[in-house]
């Protein structure tokens, strides 16, 4: 997968007060919701993913005849398809839309940050004008950014808009590659030069076990009161409290690690190589090492923060299919066998190494073989313990941990 041009995307969410009557805006939101539902109903029974072209052919003229503008129509069918797609991948039921919200393309609105006004183009030639409520400080940040899409919502008491802004960042020319492997207990990263010399190896502990404990507690309580937990105040409160903890721990950690990792990458002018988590479904790593009950959301959250912080520092991020990276020999490519706890061994060439370090080297190699012609040679590595400074790798009782890896 090609790395995207680094760009920062941020949403500005604020209250919006309609100038004059809001009848037409509400009418539009209802029409939009019904149109999305209609398409969801129709494509739910169709197997497989529909291309944009197919969606266009199936629904465009119908949507336009309902009064939608060209870009409304596109937003409606793309949104419907994404709802179906995500419901299917979660094994869920057909989505039923209740909330009033619409995604609007940048061709269908006019935004003026000086006067804080927003004009929306609605169905059948109608327009709605809204006054935006936000501090000039929050808004000022987005001057000079490009705005491209917005979401308008009605929550029963009033309207909200989230405007998406994007700023292109000029990528730093990478001098090194930083590959990152996310695991249940630790995050392992390696910084390697383009000719395969190791510049840094580091491990961070994760709080995932703590998060899992809170989760298990919640699940247990929900199982004990399967129908009633929502209605018993004390139980619901306790569940909320644990949920808050999970949120705080995971976001707090993700922000901290994102900042640390990107800071390090900036110091080494690295391009950051992450595992493409979408490709994990067919990968056996998920079943074994990733804890199924915790799910992938926690890894996505960490990746999100790493990417965000990297882009703030003008660093490029690429995602690589992690298939085989934790099971194949980085020297000869043969499947590795388990030697000891966390240690893998190659029966063909005798290579021995730490599981997570092998994963980061393989990610690095995959990246290099994909994006450059120069080969990788002479990587010498020692595996550090969590939070240990790898440049001064200490003596370790475990022989395999200090085995010299030469690939
Ligand atoms: Zn081998």
Automatic annotation (TrEMBL):
Q: What Gene Ontology terms describe what this protein does at the molecular function level? A: DNA binding
Q: What is this protein called?
A: Transposase
Q: Which Pfam families match?
A: Cas12f1-like_TNB
Q: Which NCBIfam families match?
A: guided_TnpB (NF040570), IS200/IS605 family accessory protein TnpB-like domain (TIGR01766)
Where does the secretion signal sit in this chain?
Answer: none
Q: In what residue span(s) does the Cas12f1-like TNB domain sit? A: 299-363
Could you list this entry's UniProt keywords, alphabetically sorted.
DNA-binding
Record keywords: Lipid biosynthesis included? no
Q: InterPro entries per the record?
A: Cas12f1-like_TNB
Q: Which domain of life is it from?
A: Archaea
Q: Does the keyword DNA-binding apply?
A: yes
């Amino acid at each position: 997968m090609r790395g995207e041009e680094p760009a920062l995307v941020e949403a500005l969410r604020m209250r919006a007060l309609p100038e004059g009557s809001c009848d037409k805006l509400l009418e539009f939101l209802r029409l939009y919701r019904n149109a999305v539902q209609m398409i969801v109903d129709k494509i739910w029974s169709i197997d497989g993913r529909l291309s944009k072209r197919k969606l266009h052919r199936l629904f465009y003229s119908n949507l336009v005849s309902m009064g939608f503008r060209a870009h409304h129509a596109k937003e409606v069918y793309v949104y419907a398809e994404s709802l179906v797609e995500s419901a299917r991948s979660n094994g869920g039921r057909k989505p039923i839309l209740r909330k009033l919200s619409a995604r609007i393309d940048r061709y269908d609105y006019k935004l003026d940050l000086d006067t804080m006004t927003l004009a929306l183009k609605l169905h059948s030639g109608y327009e709605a004008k809204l006054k935006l409520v936000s501090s000039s400080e929050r808004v000022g940040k987005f001057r000079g950014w490009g705005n491209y899409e917005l979401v308008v919502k009605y929550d029963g008491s009033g309207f909200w808009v989230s405007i998406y802004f994007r700023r292109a960042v000029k990528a730093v020319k990478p001098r090194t590659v930083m590959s990152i492997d996310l695991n249940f207990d630790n995050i392992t990263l390696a910084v390697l030069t383009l000719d395969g010399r190791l510049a840094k190896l580091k491990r961070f502990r994760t709080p995932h076990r703590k998060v899992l404990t809170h989760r298990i507690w919640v699940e247990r309580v929900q199982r004990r009161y399967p129908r009633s937990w929502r209605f018993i105040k004390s139980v619901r409160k306790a569940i909320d409290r644990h949920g808050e903890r999970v949120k705080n721990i995971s976001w707090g950690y993700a922000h901290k690690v994102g900042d640390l990792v990107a800071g390090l990458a900036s110091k080494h002018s690295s391009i950051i190589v992450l595992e493409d988590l979408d490709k994990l479904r067919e990968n056996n790593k998920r079943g074994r090492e990733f804890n199924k009950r915790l799910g992938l959301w926690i890894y996505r959250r960490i990746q999100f923060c790493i990417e965000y912080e990297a882009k703030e520092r003008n660093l490029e991020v690429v995602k690589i299919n992690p298939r085989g990276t934790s099971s194949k020999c980085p020297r000869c490519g043969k499947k590795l066998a388990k030697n000891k706890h966390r240690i893998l061994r190659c029966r063909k060439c005798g290579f021995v190494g730490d599981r997570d370090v092998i994963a980061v080297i393989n990610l690095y190699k995959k990246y290099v073989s994909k994006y450059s012609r120069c080969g990788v040679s002479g990587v010498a590595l020692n595996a550090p313990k969590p939070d240990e400074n790898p440049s001064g790798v200490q003596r370790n009782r475990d022989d395999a941990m200090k085995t010299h890896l030469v690939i």
